[in-house]
Amino acid sequence: MTILVTGATGNIGRCVVERLVGAGQRVRAMTRDPRAARLPAGVEVVYGDFERPETWRDALEEIERVYLFPFAYVIPESDAGFVGEAVKAGVRRFVVHSAAAAEFPPGDDQYDQSISSLRRHLAMERDAHREQELLVEATDVEWTHVRPGLLAAGALGWAEQIRAGYPVVEPYGAAGSALVHEADVAEIAVAALLTDAHIGAAYTITGPAKVSQAEQVAAIAAATGQDIRFEEVSPEAALEHWHRQGYPHDIAAWLIESLAATVDGPGLVPATDTFERITGRPARTFAQWAVDHAEEFRVVGDTRAT
Ligand SMILES: NC(=O)c1ccc[n+]([C@@H]2O[C@H](COP(=O)([O-])OP(=O)(O)OC[C@H]3O[C@@H](n4cnc5c(N)ncnc54)[C@H](OP(=O)(O)O)[C@@H]3O)[C@@H](O)[C@H]2O)c1
């Protein structure tokens, strides 16, 4: 059996590929740029693009199980034909890379200008991910939905400035979420691909506890052995900076609202015990994530080993 991993070069997909290979599985990885994919030896890397249906047949040939990247999210206008083509080609199981947003309560509308930018954004996230889940549920094949909360990999957005030796400058240093390590998400996805124990389940997977922005930077500093300052700025200064950087107004608005909303309380997605329930091991911490990614934050010219 060959397993198709879509989004194979992404934060989670790459981990899924590595774990499947480690488990001795035959893996086909789909990407729009096979030459840049840098996937483990033995992986069959094929060109495939969710936006180009003519590329799907080769990717899907003789595939029974698929790790399905949230293409309805990256391509909102797609008619989502990939799922139908996959079933026609013989796919019998999907593990859907979704998001915790899929279970956000219904009600808000992404186009409703009377609600906040954040609520519109969350409604958009919910609808896009749930749409893809429903597409899969409407087929007659096996499925599991893997719904990560906010990914720890979001901190890679600071990597460039940290490598250049600059402090991390953000509003709301105390804002945070129970950030999830991509390896935890991949572990559950691989279990769902390889065993029958998770058929028909939808799992919201988060990190073990909320971690604030300032704590994230401290963890990266500890992991790299570098002195990295967190500099808190006012929301007004941040908005002005983001506008100068060319952030669309709506994105800047929901970003700042989401930070303000997570200074107190559990964050946008409260911590779950899903990973521990399934694996019997605690979820990986953000500190662990920082150790695993220390090289990506290493100041240029710093030769300290991790
Ligand atoms: N950010 C969060 O905190 C968060 C939380 C929950 C869920 N999510 C969901 O997870 C997704 C991100 O996952 P990730 O971080 O693992 O991925 P990622 O690192 O953002 O990588 C994106 C992947 O999508 C693939 N891709 C993009 N457009 C494609 C297309 N037209 N055709 C085929 N492949 C395409 C890319 O492949 P190539 O470039 O190699 O073609 C790449 O493998 C988000 O889109 C969101 O839906 C995010």
Structural class by secondary-structure content: alpha/beta
Helix content: 25-40%
How are strands sequenced across the largest beta sheet? 3-2-1-4-5-6-9
- Provide the low-confidence segments as ranges: none
Tell me the CATH superfamily of the domain at 2-150 and 181-206 and 270-283.
NAD(P)-binding Rossmann-like Domain
Written as H for each helix and E for each strand, in order along the chain, the element string is EHEEHEHHEHEHEEHEEHEHHHH
Which range does the strand content fall in?
A: 15-25%
> Which ligands does the model contain, each kind named once?
NADP nicotinamide-adenine-dinucleotide phosphate
Number of strands: 11
Largest sheet: 7 strands, parallel
Helix segment tally:
12
Radius of gyration: 20 Å
If you had to describe this structure to a student in words, what would you say it looks like?
- The protein has a 7-stranded parallel beta sheet, with helices on both faces.
- It is α/β, with parallel strands linked by helices and about 300 residues long.
- The chain has a domain of about 190 residues: Rossmann fold (3-Layer(aba) Sandwich).
- Helix 1 crosses helix 7, helix 5 packs across helix 10 and helix 9 runs antiparallel to helix 10.
- About 40% of the residues lie in helices and about 15% in strands.
- It has 12 helices and 11 strands.
- It binds NADP nicotinamide-adenine-dinucleotide phosphate.
- NADP nicotinamide-adenine-dinucleotide phosphate binds next to helix 1 and helix 3.
Concise account of the structure shown:
With 306 residues, this protein is an alpha/beta fold.
